[in-house]
Amino acid sequence: MAAIPFPTNQVxxxxxxxxxxxxxxxxxxxxxxxALLAQIARGTAADIDAAVAAAQAALDGExxxxxxxxxxxxxxxxxxxxxxxxxxLARLEALDVGKPVKQGKADALALARYLEFYAGxxxxxxxxxxxxxxxxxxLTLREPHGVTGHIVPWNYPMQIIGRSVGAALAMGNAxxxxxxxxxCLTALAFGRLAQDAGLPPGALNIVPGLGEEAGAAxxxxxxxxxxxxxxxxxxxxxxxxxxxxxxIPVTLELGGKSPQLVFADADLDAALPFLVNAxxxxxxxxxxxxxxxxxxxxxxxxxxxxxxxxxxxxxIGPALDDPDVGPLISARQRELVLGYLGVARDSGLGLVxxxxxxxxxxxxxxYVAPTLLAPVAPDHRLAQEEIFxxxxxxxxxxxxxxxxxxxxxxxxxLVAGVWTRDGARQFRLARGLKCGQxxxxxxxxxxxxxxxxxxxxxxxxxxxxxxxxxxGFSTLKTVAIRHG
Length: 484
Known about the structure:
The protein is of the alpha/beta class. It contains 16 helices and 22 strands.
C-alpha cells in the first residue's frame, strides 16, 4: 500500500483533522539517526475537552445508535484496512520507534488480528437471567462505560491500540486516544484508516501531546468514564490518583521484571531462542521482557554459554535495515540504560557477552549494545529494577522452592516462563508464580491476542486482550422486574 495520507501535525477530533488549540507542535525524532521525522501537534487541555465532547456527541448520535453487529462489521472493515496497509505501518513504526521492520510488521498484523477478534466478539457479550424471588424476573445487561480514555506508550503503539481501543469500540464506547509524544505516527495513521473504514465521527479521537499536558488532562477529565493506561509505575500512580478524584475505573499495565525459570530437565534447544529473544526484542523495551533468566545450577554454565553465543551473533543497526536489535527510543532512554550498565560494572557483575556495535552506526542514533550478565544475585539492583533496555541477568538456583522464591521476589508480577518436562512441577509453578500470565515451555504464546493480559503487584491491575477486555470496557447493570 502507498503512504497513508494523514497529517502528522494535527489532532483528530470529531472526525476532523485540525491544528492543536494552542497552535504549537513538538519535534518527533528518528531514534535510528537522531534526525527530525516530523512535527506533531502539541495537544493541550483544550483539545482534550473538545475530544471528550466529540466522543460524547458520538455516543448521543450515530455511533451510540449502532447495534453490536454493526460495530463488529465496522471493526472487521478496519481490520482489513490495516492488513492492506501493514507494510506501510511497519515502515512508520520502524522510523518512529526504532523497531526492526519485521517486528513492526508483526505489530501491524497483531493490530489487525485484535480488530478481527473484537469484530467477531462485539455481539457475543451477553447478559444473564438470575433465579430470584417469586414474582420477579431478574437479569443483567452489559453496557459501555461511555467515553473511555486511552494513554498508550511508545514501545508498542499498534498492539496496545488494538487491545484497548479495539475492545472499547467493540463494546460501544467512544474513545479519546493520547499516544506517546515520542512515537505516534502509527496512531495517527490508524485514525485515518478508521475514517476510511467508515467509523462515525467522534467514535475515535486522537490527541498527541506531552504526558504532563494532554495526558494529565485526559486522566483528570470529568467527562471520561474509564481510563486505560500502559506505561511506567510512576506515571500509573498519577493516572490512578487523577481518576480516583472522579471515582472512575482504571486499567493499569505497568512495569515488569519477568523471569524465565529453566530447570535441568528442560529442552534447552527449544528454550534458547525464547530466553534471548524475549529479552532483546524491541531493544528490551517491552513490559513483559524476560529480563531475568533463572537457571538450575546443574545446567547454569551450559545455558549461559549458549546464550552468550547468541548474543555475540546479534546484528545491531538502523531499524529500516531490519537488524536483530535496533536503537532505543531516545537519547534519554539510552542514558538510563547506560546508567544501569555502569552500576553493573561498578558492582563487579560478570559481563558474559556483549554484542558489537558496528562502527558504521549513525552518530545520532540511540544504540546500546545488548548485554548478558551472570551470575547475578537475586537482590541486586539489576535483578530487581526494570531496566527497559537490551540487558539480561542470569541467576542460578537450587531446586524448585528457591526458584519460586526468586521469581516472586520483586515488586513486579507481569509474566513468567517455565521450562521443564516435569508435568507436576509445571502445574505447581503455574499456581505458585505471582503474576498475570505463566507460559510453560514457551514464552509469549506468539502474542496471544485471545489471552487476557495484565499484572499483579506493581505491574498493575485489570486485564486487556481476549474476551476479558470486553468485560473491563463495559459495566454491568442489574434489572429486577416485579410482575407478580
